[in-house]
Amino acid sequence: MPLPKTARAASRPVRSAPLQAASLRQTRRAHATETAEDYVEAIADLTLAMGEARVVDLARRLGVTHVTVNHTLARLQREGYLSALPYRAIFLTPHGQRLAKICQQRHEVVVAFLQALGVPPKIAERDAEGIEHHVSPRTLAAFARHLAQ
Amino acid sequence: MPLPKTARAASRPVRSAPLQAASLRQTRRAHATETAEDYVEAIADLTLAMGEARVVDLARRLGVTHVTVNHTLARLQREGYLSALPYRAIFLTPHGQRLAKICQQRHEVVVAFLQALGVPPKIAERDAEGIEHHVSPRTLAAFARHLAQ
DNA sequence: TCTAAAATGTAGCTAAGGCTACATTATGTA
DNA sequence: TACATAATGTAGCCTTAGCTACATTTTAGA
Ligand SMILES: [Mn+2]
Ligand SMILES: [Mn+2]
Ligand SMILES: [Mn+2]
Ligand SMILES: [Mn+2]
Known about the structure:
CATH topology of chain A: Arc Repressor Mutant, subunit A
Number of helices of chain A: 6
Distance between the termini of chain A: 55 Å
Bound molecules: manganese (II) ion
CATH superfamily of chain A: Winged helix-like DNA-binding domain superfamily/Winged helix DNA-binding domain
Largest interface: A-B, 66 and 66 residues
Number of domains of chain A: 1
Oligomer: homodimer
CATH architecture of chain A: Orthogonal Bundle
Shape of chain A: globular
Low-confidence stretches of chain A: 1-10
Strand content of chain A: under 5%
Strand order of the largest sheet of chain A: 1-2
Structural class of chain A: mainly alpha
Mean pLDDT of chain A: 93
């Protein structure tokens, strides 16, 4: 026997449907750019550490096969984040470099923040790899504020 | 002229390849269960607030079409989270209820934590909707600790 | 310089999770 | 009770992102 549609016997804060829908849309949007963010960040890291970024190195760092890397690189090249020629190293475009820098900085702040809260380093690194993509500028600023104290 | 493969001119902490790969694998695992988590949480919320959970209500709250809801419900039913009959309301199995409770609690902690840091409520809600799925038990405990002070 | 091994690329598959367009079933009200 | 409308379901499409198996190209060392 269902309650009337207007019943609201909530014992805890019930998110409004529009707010929750908007939040979930934002989460899906974040997931859509997440791969690009992790790839350009990894390419920037590898370029700095090894002089160039190669497909095998990316595959190793990203925990996927080289086939997946190839496939994704094709899309990211299409979308203007990087340039690549067959059997050659991968280079970020200025657009890709800008994104990489932002992601590197955000990544560092999130990891440092979690560690400052008492989360062990490896767990902080693990969680940060996912959390970072859902941290808005306002929240990132809050993390940085907390770190500055 | 690429540097030798052993070069390591890093000016900032370089994550080891194995740790980064493990972190990204964990992130992908989290994304695989994320939909289930958001659905069971929404179904529990709706059941409490309206007496039952219907496809239209879920679609509205989740910000997707009813077709997507149907499609996903079929999978979640296959995986034992819920039961549903054509043209009837959706019910969580005990398994689904257990997951829903965990997710509801975690969601609340994450939102409260972000707000305690000074993030405005709506932004906290938005970010939490994505962040929650990447918060490990250790990190959740750290959030709760911080809230208790 | 040759050639085996490493790196890279391609073909073709799967699953999740979106969508529009259309079909069917329930339901509330005249 | 009839029937218009709301709710639900189905068909069929797309993109992302994974994979294995196999083909091709580079490259390093004998
Ligand atoms: Mn990441
Ligand atoms: Mn995520
Ligand atoms: Mn969520
Ligand atoms: Mn949630």
